[in-house]
Amino acid sequence: MTAWRLFRWAGLAGVISGLLAIGTDFLFWVSFRDQPTRVSAASGSWSLLLFISFVAAFLGLLALFGLYARQVRESGGFGLMAFLVAAIGLVLNMGFLWSGLFLVPALTEAAPDFLDATDSGPQGGVAVGFISTAVVFALGWTLIAIVTLRTRLFPAAPAWLLIAGAVFSLVAAIAGFPFGATLFGLALAWLGWLLWRDNLDGNHLAEA
User: Fold this and answer.
1) Residue 198 three-state SS
2) Confidence of residue 34 (pLDDT cuts 50, 70, 90)
3) Which residues, other chains included, contact 46 with Cβ-Cβ below 8 Å and sequence gap of 6+?
4) Are 187 and 14 spatial neighbours (Cβ–Cβ below 8 Å)?
5) Residue 166 DSSP code
6) What angle do CA 24, 28, 30 make, to 5 degrees?
């Protein structure tokens, strides 16, 4: 498979990942905003939305590979560091989603009091894991956005939107705000579309 085809598939993965992130963000809020976790997690909708979110995160990892590969020559060591941090953040997030998909529903019967306690915010080791995942995720994608601004192979606007989305996802995760993934999903879909539609010389990317 040529590099051109790899970039286009990675771009398509980014578009789908971003749109799925936006959609699940909205559906989670509509479906579960007034329910305790032990009630929400017992529903089929919870499992479906967590599965879709997991798929979105996996596709986001593929998009990340494509975005880094497209800029690898221009980004140097800083680009590699940004890629690794962002990849670690995505893998941690996938672990978080896996727990929500398989572990949390089991706790609705085994430990409902524990789930009730987490509704006011994670405690102890769970809080450490949750916050560290959110921090690494936000930091990694902020670094990717900075790489994108420095290489100038993509327009500046989606890169700045990616920074805003990464920062807001962190604030939303810690403060419990809704729609934490919406801005990030929009930026990822935008960058994915640019990666998908353009050729390898990057001229159209810089001028878009």
Assistant:
1) coil
2) confident
3) 31, 32, 40, 100, 104, 105
4) no
5) H
6) 115
Token digits for 165?
Answer: 């989305």
Place of tokens 């405690």: 123
- Distance CA(81)–CA(87), nearest Å, equals 10
Structure letter (DSSP) for residue 201: T
The pTM (predicted TM-score) of the whole model is 0.90
pLDDT in tens, 167-190: 999 999 988 888 999 999 999 999
Dist. CA 42–CA 19, nearest whole Å: 26
In whole angstroms, what is the distance from residue 195 CA to residue 208 CA?
Answer: 11
User: From CA 136, how far away is CA 204, in angstroms rounded?
Assistant: 32
What are 70-73's contacts with CB under 8 Å, separation 24+?
70/7, 70/153, 70/195, 70/202, 71/147, 71/148, 71/151, 71/153
CA 157 to chain centre: 18
The residues, any chain, with a CB within 8 Å of residue 186's CB and separated by 6 or more, are 18, 22, 161, 165
d(CA 46, CA 166): 24
